[in-house]
Specification:
This protein is of the alpha/beta class. About 55% of the residues lie in helices and about 5% in strands.
């Protein structure tokens, strides 16, 4: 027995020398790891789960180390009468903690694989297998070690600065670590608020501008005058950017619309202004956009849609095609590009630019429509998806301003930070949930997860109508920095139909879980996550229903736009 104890002690000592393990940190890290593999909004493969669980475990390890330090600083000195346990007892306890941590992690991974299959089933997807999912453990351990190593490197830098401050500036030894930490924080903040931030986003802009200059082999310069980029256009083809060239070169023709609907059709107008379209002029993008609308006769159409794009200038083809088929091509759609960056980076760097672009374009178009007699104006609609909805909302001071200026608004997958969306949801009717809110009995604004929600809570929906599409499982809608320390309403209320009832909120953990979900928001089937599919058409029909709309026509158009979306996903 004595020999066994000695061997255990030797093994634990050797392990401690190698990895300098803090056992309180290990206990808390295990708890954080266990919480991180509980259900989130979307199904995840082992790689995503390993990344997020490793980060969470490292955070837990840090919290545990802090707790132990506070214990040694404030409580341990008051426990002088309690004798220290024998050496072998302490090492036996440490061995038990280490083994329990490994066994607990393994058990939670097996449970997590089952939960992931449940979430996948809620979305009509095939789930992971348990053996494949167990790889999460190895990746989490690797990520956790890297994060802890990075923290220890920072700690060594702080201690180095403390020694130098004590040596050269004569900062008292007791205050030197705090002073060193302050110096490091000031250096980092100064760097990242200035040179580093500008350099990073300048490099990102440069990198993504390369793709912006690229043209898909499936995007061909239009020849019809109704399209920007055509020979008659004020916005040359080579200035529209990758997304702009795709947008104007695709979409249904008058012949295709007539073939699908069985009715006469006009050639739809698509106006688009890229970042480079005004590079060598004194005009703003909004001014050139209005001139392009004038050139194409857009103000004589039945419907005019002002689209605020996402970061790279993307326009959802489902939204554009739907409205064009619904109104027999008697439409005009206008959009501008305000960034080279994808939405995630634009959200961090270009939010002011997003808001400014949305406001300037709408104001310019709105002011032009006001020069015409009321009976001679097109129906003015606004549309935005994801970050685009945030820019589109920025054109309006509030609900009264919105209803005064537009004939309808459709905003899809709005980020949680959207100003108007937050106001409407926070003031929802008592008894309604955050994921399915009802505002003022649904008389003006409606929130929908599916087509049936657009008809709720009652038949009366006054014009102009405003609709938000938001899935209960869309992380773009529900992600917020507040998740780190505050439990949101949507996790204290009944869950949405495609969200696991097992999902629970935990400080810090849920924030990182939903952050990871953002990267996979499009990786699920239509009707879940950030995939809204042909629900966009149903929303357009609810917001601005054409007079001859009927279920048979709706189904024909739905089949057509879904087939095009599948093609676009394959070749773009």
């Amino acid at each position: 027995m004595t020999r066994l104890r000695s061997r255990c002690v030797a093994v634990v000592k050797r392990t401690e020398r190698i990895i300098d393990l803090n056992y309180v940190g290990l206990v808390v890290a295990t708890v954080f790891f266990a919480l991180s593999v509980t259900p989130s909004l979307l199904p995840r493969d082992w790689m995503f789960q390993g990344l997020i669980s490793g980060i969470n475990a490292a955070i837990g390890y840090g919290v545990g180390c802090l707790l132990e330090w506070l214990f040694r600083l404030w409580i341990r000195p008051r426990l002088t009468r309690i004798p220290a346990p024998p050496t072998w007892t302490r090492y036996a306890l440490k061995s038990a903690v280490l083994i329990s941590a490994v066994l607990s992690a393994g058990y939670m991974l097996v449970q997590s694989a089952h939960w992931q299959r449940e979430i996948a089933a809620l979305m009509g997807m095939e789930g992971t297998t348990t053996p494949a999912y167990l790889r999460t453990g190895g990746l989490s351990l690797t990520i956790g070690i890297i994060v802890v190593a990075a923290y220890r490197t920072v700690r060594e830098i702080i201690l180095f600065l403390a020694r130098e401050l004590n040596r050269w500036v004569r900062v008292p030894r007791e205050l030197a670590p705090a002073a060193g930490a302050l110096v490091l924080v000031l250096l980092v903040v100064t760097l990242f608020n200035g040179v580093a931030t500008r350099a990073f986003f300048a490099a990102a802009n440069s990198a993504f501008s390369v793709r912006n200059d690229h043209t898909s082999e499936y995007a061909v310069q239009p020849q019809l005058p109704e399209r920007s980029g055509s020979p008659d256009s004020l916005a040359p083809w080579n200035t529209l950017g990758f997304e702009g060239r795709w947008f104007v070169s695709h979409g249904p023709s008058a012949e295709r619309i007539s073939w699908v609907t069985g009715r006469p059709a006009r050639e739809p107008i698509r106006a688009y202004i890229g970042l480079e379209s005004v590079a060598h002029t004194e005009q703003s993008q909004a001014e050139l956009a209005v001139e392009e609308l004038e050139r194409t006769g857009a103000f004589d159409r039945k419907v005019l849609v002002v689209v605020t794009t996402t970061g790279t200038g993307w326009v959802n083809s489902m939204a554009a095609n739907s409205i064009e088929y619904m109104y027999g091509g008697d439409t005009a759609i206008v959009a501008t590009q305000y960034s080279y960056l994808p939405s995630a980076l634009s959200f961090l760097a270009d939010r002011d630019k997003t808001a400014g672009a949305g406001r300037e374009l709408f104001d310019a178009v709105y002011d032009r429509t006001r020069t015409r007699a009321p009976d001679d104006r097109p129906k003015l609609l606004v549309y935005g998806e994801s970050l685009g909805s945030q820019g589109s909302e920025a054109a309006f001071d509030g609900l009264a301003d919105l209803r005064t200026k537009v004939d309808g608004a459709l905003w899809v997958g709005p980020p949680n930070s959207n100003r108007l969306w937050q106001q409407f949801v926070s003031r929802r009717d008592p008894g309604t949930s955050e994921t399915q809110p009802v505002y003022a009995d649904g008389l003006v604004i409606r929130f929908a997860d599916d087509a049936a929600d657009l008809a709720a809570p009652g038949p009366e929906w006054r014009e102009p109508r405003i609709a938000y599409l938001q899935h209960a499982s869309d992380p773009i809608v529900w992600w917020s920095p507040d998740l780190a320390l505050t439990q949101p309403d949507w996790l204290s209320e009944p869950r949405g139909a495609d969200v696991s009832p097992r999902m629970r909120w935990a400080p810090l953990v849920t924030f990182w879980q939903v952050t990871a979900d953002l990267t996979n928001a499009q990786g699920v089937r239509d009707g879940h996550g950030h995939r809204y599919g042909s629900l966009v058409m149903d929303a357009w029909a609810a917001v601005t229903r054409p007079p001859d709309w009927n279920p048979e026509l709706a189904e024909r158009i739905r089949l057509e736009i879904e087939a095009y979306e599948a093609y676009e996903r394959e070749v773009k």
